[in-house]
């Protein structure tokens, strides 16, 4: 199927049993809601557990078959991407439903909404469905992969809900921590009629033998699974800051994750001038200033990985070169020591493998152990930058306030990326050369 050929609603197409990139896209603008992609792995029409729901707060399935790769904003459109490896989908899973939810409005205000499937390795177009005619819907099942005769097919579905991600998730058996409807939400857009999926198979129920004579011994109830949290905060240029305390993030661990995608092998990507090919290596780092005036840096360079339970109460988990949401680069901040922080600046540098951040599409997520996660995307890089300030976390009256920075900086000749970000934010540290 050509990249410009959109499938009609209800149609299906054969897809390879391979790793596929599923791109949800739309055209942004004033008053256009944010949109999020999600996936549900179904057995007999329902999830087996809340772990079968992959979305921004639960970005990877335990099987490795589905993961949420994050958003990017480029060329006048925003995309949110899932990677679905059909070869790794467990044998019991019959369908992988591909959904979209609108945050801050209905899909009637989202122009040019589409879902496109490509071969993740080769980039070949596999399937595409352009969704039109939306009105009050706040969630959509746009498409699905389903098993057929030993292979997989993609169906263009186009079924809408007016109850948001919560209603859609609940309808497929997810337990959420938001107020729920007393009855399953009814679709407001009819599903595709042709080629309906096979009816659910009847699952035999276990029969329990009657208890012996005598008073029954009460058994302790099974532990309740934690419900899925759907709330989140998305920082933008217009609304760049958020209080962690107001979102419930006052204790425990705060995990800061950077993930990225490189879509094109442009000149400069994958090499430095005059050197052999090297893989891209980005380093997540943090400048810190403690309440007692001590300053420092947490980074892989010089093995300055920090510590979570003693100053600076910030720890770098390791060095990742894939950019995947399930791994990526991660910093952890101990929120139990909020009073010990004055400010923390999270930034990223290119250690090797590229001359700038051009064509790097990255997402930053801050996930507190308690409270709503905070996320934002980086803007396109249009300058020869090797260091980007991501987020500034400031202690304001005992509350940590996160501010989106997303500032690409260009080091002067002979000046390191670390010294460049230090100067830009007035940290005032002395720097010496270092290596991993």
What does this structure look like?
The chain is mainly beta. It folds into 2 domains: 12-171, sav2460 like domains (Lipoxygenase-1, Sandwich), CATH 2.60.60; 233-425, Sandwich (Lipoxygenase-1). It is 4% helix and 39% strand. A hairpin with a 2-residue loop joins strand 23 (387-396) and strand 24 (399-409).
Quick one: biggest sheet?
7 strands, mixed
Please report the number of helical segments.
2
Uncertain residue ranges: 179-185, 194-224, 264-277, 321-326
What fraction strand? 35-45%
SSE order in H/E notation?
Answer: EEEEEEEEEEEHEEEEEEEEEEEEEH
Give the termini distance in whole angstroms.
Answer: 46 Å
CATH level 3 topology of the largest domain? Lipoxygenase-1
Number of domains as seen in the coordinates: 2
What is Rg?
24 Å
Task: Please tell me what the overall shape is.
Answer: globular
Question: How are the strands ordered across the major sheet?
Answer: 12-22-21-14-19-18-17
Mean pLDDT: 82
CATH architecture of the largest domain, please?
Answer: Sandwich
Structural class: mainly beta
Number of strand segments: 24
The CATH superfamily of the largest domain appears as sav2460 like domains
Helix proportion range = under 10%
CATH class of the largest domain, named: Mainly Beta
Protein name: Tellurium resistance
InterPro entries: Stress/Tellurium_Resist, Tellurite_resistance_TerA, TerD
Region (Disordered): 176-218
Biased composition (Pro residues): 182-202, 209-218
